Amino acid sequence: MEAIRSYDTAIPSVGIGTWTLGGEDCARLVHDAIAAGYRHIDTASAYGNEERVGEGVRASGIPRGELFMTTKVGPRDLADGDFQRSLEASLERLGMDHVDLVLIHWPSPTLSVAEMMRPLNDVRRRGLTLHIGVSNFTPRRLHEAWVSTEFPIIANQCEYHPYLNQDRLIAACEDKGTVLVAYCPLGRGRSFDEPAIVEIATRHAVSPAQVVLRWENQQGAVVIPRTTRADRLRTNLDIFGFRLDDAEMAAISALSRTRNERICGSSLIADWND
Ligand SMILES: NC(=O)c1ccc[n+]([C@@H]2O[C@H](COP(=O)([O-])OP(=O)(O)OC[C@H]3O[C@@H](n4cnc5c(N)ncnc54)[C@H](OP(=O)(O)O)[C@@H]3O)[C@@H](O)[C@H]2O)c1
Prior knowledge:
The longest helix has 14 residues, at 23-36. This protein has helices spanning 23-36, 50-60, 82-94, 113-125, 139-147, 167-176, 195-204, 208-217, 230-237, 246-253, 255-258; strands at residues 3-6, 9-12, 16-17, 40-42, 68-73, 99-104, 129-135, 153-159, 179-183, 222-223. The mean pLDDT is 97. The protein is globular. Helix 1 crosses helix 9 (230-237). By secondary structure, it is an alpha/beta fold. An 8-stranded parallel β-sheet has the order 3-4-5-6-7-8-9-10, covered by helices on one side. The structure holds NADP nicotinamide-adenine-dinucleotide phosphate (NAP). The site of NADP nicotinamide-adenine-dinucleotide phosphate has 27 residues, from helix 9.
C-alpha cells in the first residue's frame, strides 16, 4: 500500500471511511476492506460503530501492527479529563490498547486551541495513541495548535473534493508538514458527471471516482472514501496505476471556480476561511 510520510510515520494513502456504517454491515465492510488491501481505517466516537469496526479488524486476521487505525474525540469531550475518558472508552469499544492516530473531531466552541492541545498531548505521552492530529481546523487554528503542542500534529482531516477550493488550507498544512487527510474525498459523487472529469477518466480508462481520488493524492493528500459496495472498495484503492498530467490536474482544480460548496458542517464553523 502506498503511503504518505508525516514526521516519523507513514500514513497509508487510501483509507476506508466508516461514517454511517453500523451493525453487522460495518463489521463485514471493514473485514472486506482489509481483505481488499486497505490498511487504514477511519472511525470516530461519534460514528457509534467502534465496536463493529474492532470486530471487523479482528475477523480479518491481519495483525494489528499492520493497520493504521484512526479515531476521533468529539467537540463536547475536549476538556482535560473528558478527552482522556473519551479515548479510553473508544479503545475499549475497539478492543485495542492504542490507536495510531487520534484527532480532535471538531474544534471546541468554548475552549481555546491551547486548552484542547493539552489532553491531546497527554494521551500521546501515555501511549494511548501513537500520533496526534486535528480535524476541521482552519489555517489559523492549525497554526495555534502547532504553537501549543509538544508532539507533531501529523494530520488535519478536512473536507476536500473538486467542488471545494482548499488552496489556503493545503498551503498551511504544507507549511507545517501536516498531512491533509481528505474527507468526503468523492464529494459524494457530485462532480462525477463533469465533462472534464469524464473526459480524463475515459482517457485513462478509469472511473470518475478514481480520477478524483488520484487528483487529491497527487496533491499530497491521504483519502478516506466510504463505500458499501465490494466492487467500489477495490477500485477506490486502485488509483496508482495512472498519473494525471499538469493540464488534467489544473482542469479538475478549475471546477471549484464555478461551483465551490461545503458538504459537511458549513454552519459549525463561522470562520472557515480564517
Ligand atoms: N472529520 C470529519 O468531520 C468527517 C466528516 C465527514 C466524513 N468523514 C470521514 O470521511 C469518510 C468519507 O466521507 P463521506 O462518507 O462523507 O463521503 P465520500 O467518501 O465522498 O462519498 C461516499 C459516497 O460515495 C459513494 N461512492 C463510493 N465509492 C464510489 C465509486 N467508486 N463510484 C461512485 N460512488 C461511490 C458511496 O455510495 P456507495 O456506498 O453506494 O458506494 C457513498 O454514498 C467518512 O466515511 C468518514 O470516515 C470525516
